[in-house]
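lol forgot to send this yesterday, sorry. struct tokens for the thing we talked abt
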């Protein structure tokens, strides 16, 4: 078996675009050293980094850039075009794909609008939306299976992030959600990916145009104001930032909550720790971020100069792919109990919300959403259980996200 794995990896190893078993794949890659060459959709070769200590080093290294425009020769020379399925992940103009002072500038402008204060101020609204959605679930009855992802964990962050950015509910919002969900799916074609991107930017442009005419107390209006100040966002940066923040504010919290609920229903003794006061919902969030991190691989980063990663040479300009999901399952960091979902675990230092300067700006809001969702869900439906065996839950068809595409439950 070991020989077969080594031969497969020497090809180099082709990552499964369907993300059918991210944990097993990462465990295989982890044995190959600090970094291993892999093939992405479209035949692009990159260095995969899955061990947590090396992911942290890459994220903290100023010789590593997110800007394809500055530091990926194949992109600069025009070899990477829109017919590459993951093109939107490297081509958009936002702080996700910027480098150095440009990235710091964009983050400053966005952080000024996306504050912890705003997140906490959203708590009553989050709780009201949560209660409304759960009341709708209760009306469905207790006997028939309900897809909790489609009916609750996907709707809550969508409603919250749209409220925060002043995006009105309706058909346009549904279309925006569908488009952004497609962009997070690594198994779609380049044509589908680009069509989804165009649809998303078309809808966001309409939001910006409306907010210029009728500004409000929302983040879109705040970002427009930042754009009109001396240190302003360009039009492309404004739309790219909206795209990044709204997309991240939907799929990542959805996947976090779905994964956490599935884990608690699979391990009722852990849920009992919360009910008995031995753990709280933050412990649920933190252990889920460790063991079932929503973000899997994050494409792409690029070596600004040659980097020696403890004996593995990543040459200047070569792409790097880091796995946030693999870090929490690294036995070097978390020991022999790494595969156990344990709310009483101490010493977590996960990558679930990023690391260092790359920590997610939306982390405080995601916690507010998850705390509200878990507390009210398990209070209202204390006898809830999975409607299928845990090993029949299907993964999302992507290596960009690490979660289940549905969560069938019996509310009880």
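and heres what i got for the seq, position by position
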């Amino acid at each position: 078996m070991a020989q077969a794995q080594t031969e497969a990896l020497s090809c180099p190893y082709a990552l499964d675009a369907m993300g059918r078993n991210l944990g097993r794949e990462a465990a295989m890659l982890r044995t190959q050293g600090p970094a291993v060459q892999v093939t992405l959709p479209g035949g692009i070769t990159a260095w995969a980094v899955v061990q947590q200590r090396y992911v942290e080093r890459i994220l903290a290294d100023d010789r590593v850039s997110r800007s394809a425009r500055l530091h990926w020769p194949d992109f600069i020379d025009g070899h990477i075009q829109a017919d590459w399925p993951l093109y939107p992940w490297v081509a958009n103009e936002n702080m996700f794909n910027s480098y150095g002072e440009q990235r710091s500038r964009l983050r400053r402008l966005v952080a000024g609008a996306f504050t912890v204060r705003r997140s906490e101020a959203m708590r009553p609204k989050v709780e009201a939306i949560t209660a409304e959605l759960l009341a709708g679930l209760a009306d469905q009855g207790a006997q028939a299976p309900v897809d909790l992802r489609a009916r609750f964990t996907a709707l809550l962050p969508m409603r919250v992030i749209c409220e925060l950015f002043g995006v009105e509910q309706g058909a346009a919002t549904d279309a925006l959600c569908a488009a952004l969900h497609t962009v997070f799916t690594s198994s779609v074609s380049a044509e589908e990916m680009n069509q989804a991107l165009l649809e998303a930017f078309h809808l966001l442009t309409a939001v910006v145009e409306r907010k210029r005419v009728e500004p409000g107390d929302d983040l879109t209006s705040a970002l427009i104001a930042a754009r009109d100040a001396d240190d302003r966002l360009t039009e492309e940066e404004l739309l790219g930032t909206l795209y990044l923040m709204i997309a991240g504010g939907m799929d990542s919290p959805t996947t976090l909550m779905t994964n956490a609920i599935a884990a608690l229903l699979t391990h009722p003794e852990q849920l009992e720790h919360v009910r008995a006061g031995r753990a709280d919902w933050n412990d649920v969030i933190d252990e889920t971020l460790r063991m079932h991190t929503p973000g899997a691989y994050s494409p792409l980063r690029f070596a600004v100069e040659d980097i020696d990663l403890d004996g593995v040479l990543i040459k200047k300009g070569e792409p790097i792919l880091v796995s946030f999901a693999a870090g929490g399952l690294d036995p070097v960091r978390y020991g022999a109990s790494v595969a156990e979902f344990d709310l009483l675990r101490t010493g977590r230092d996960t990558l679930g919300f990023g690391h260092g300067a790359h920590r997610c700006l939306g982390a405080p809001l995601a916690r507010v959403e998850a705390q509200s969702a878990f507390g009210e869900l398990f209070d209202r439906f204390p006898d809830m259980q999975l409607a299928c065996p845990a090993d029949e839950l299907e993964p999302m068809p992507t290596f960009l996200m690490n979660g289940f595409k549905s969560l069938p439950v019996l509310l009880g």
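The first helix runs from residue 2 to 9. anyway ping me if u want another try
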